[in-house]
Amino acid sequence: MTLSRRIAAPLMVTMLGISHANAADFELTFQTHFSAESLKGKNVQSLVDDIERMSGGRVEVEMFYSASLVKATETFDAAVNGIIDGDMTGAAYQTGKDPAFQFVGDILGGYDTPWEMYSWFYYGGGLEAAQPLYNEHGMHVVGWWISGQESLSSTSPLTSVEDFKDWKFRSPPGIQTEIFADLGASPIVMDFGEVFTALETKIIDGADASNIATNSEIGLYDITKHATYPGFHSMPADHLAINKEVWDELPDDIQAIIEVAMEKMAFRETLSHSVEIGAAAKAAQANGVTLYDWSAEQREAFRTFSRAKWEEWGEKTEDAGKLVASHIAFMKEIGLITE
Q1: pTM for this model (two decimals)
Q2: Is the peptide bond before 114 cis (omega within 30 degrees of 0)?
Q3: Which of 4, 70, 142, 161 could bond to 74 as cystine, CB 3.0-4.6 Å?
Q4: What is the DSSP string of 130-170?
Q5: Residue 242's closest CA among 94, 52, 31?
Q6: 11-102+125-147+236-276 sits in which CATH class?
Q7: Whether the predicted pLDDT of 159 surpasses 60
Q8: With 50 as the cut, is the pLDDT of residue 15 above it?
Q9: Distance in angstroms (rounded) separating the CA atoms of residues 315 and 76
């Protein structure tokens, strides 16, 4: 149990009789790497508000934004070690612990929409496959939140997998670099904040940065006039994971409140970002950006190529293999993979 959780005295005697204590029965601290002012941050605040309201004040949640307590990549460990209670960053940050976390955070080239990925989580065995992985590391995963598909930005057209040959672009680290390198591209790993300058100085020809709304905000389309939309290669999921000891000591009704609040927040996250991303795509087109909506055949080609890399990573650990197998089985069930 972490120091931040406190069970308050449920009753107090006053001169006027018996009344409930003002302090919450349970105090929880979470951290996210997103700012409070961002759309993601506002959706996170709605989660906090819902938990406190639905619990009738029995639960109080203190949220740290913008990774203000510890670095984003250290949030998971901070929760494991009792510095905070919950982590609202991305599972892919934990691939150094086990490659299996990659397939909770983002299965590259896998699903076409967030709703397909949510379906895997809740109805395709995803939660059951992921929970043991989190438990092994002292955590309990409550749920996931997905903003939507990310877009590739480029100074040249991106119409098919063939266009990746010799394409020099910014890539985040991990399985992404391996997939694109095997397709003939030249991925360069660099921090997000370096992307605009690298494009401006022609160190790179494009970027795997974020969704089209974020890409627009940081000015990528002042330089790159080609983008994939809606995206197909990446759709990161962030999680709410809570220290397992803390979670196990919460009453069943409080656990249910947190689960329900998380599901509501996740779906609102996807819906709100779909509006934001759609508006950004329309504005980008008006400003001369050409958008490429890949055909089902081209998406399948990328998925088939990516699958080989998933399976390669799935051989690294038992948990990774189980998660990859779970994804593939569900994709076959819903028709994304035919054999």
Answers
A1: 0.89
A2: no
A3: 70
A4: HHHHHHHTTEEEEEEEE-----EEESS---SGGGGTT-EEE
A5: 31
A6: alpha beta
A7: yes
A8: no
A9: 24
